[in-house]
Design brief:
mainly alpha
Amino acid sequence: MIAVLLSLRYVMALASIGVIAASFLMFWEGLLTIWDAFAYIRTDPDQGVVTAVLQGTDKLLFGIVLVIFGCAITVGFVISPSSPWRRRLPEWMVIEGIADLKNLFFQMIIIYLVVHFVTLVAETVDTMPQWNALVLPVAILLLAAAMKIIATISPHPRPAAVKTDAASGDVTSGS
């Protein structure tokens, strides 16, 4: 029964493949947007180029984050923790559980919103921003504060802070 349940983890590989496929779409969209920026050099060299480059960078950055998220799903939930090559992976690719995945997701959303806000500001550089333009930076600050609160009250110590007593096998948190 346990073997059947453990084999269900390979369903997560489908989610990882889907996320990485979505990242390729974002890379394609970002490259097309930056390609359009070259056309704006001839037609509207002042603002059109800046806006197109920021929008393209926004899409490319989101594509990078999706690749990292897809790799984190694969390494964290599909590949066995006892796999010999998993220990050679960089620390940012190793997800220990759902809490790490939530933290990565929070960071992904905050980065995307920051770049999106800068893009919106660049698009409206000639006009005075309205009061509702403050909703996005306030949302960014609230998400960042929520992420910080969740990180500080997490009951699980980071993997580097966990020590095992060899004699008794007890796990203690080292600080």
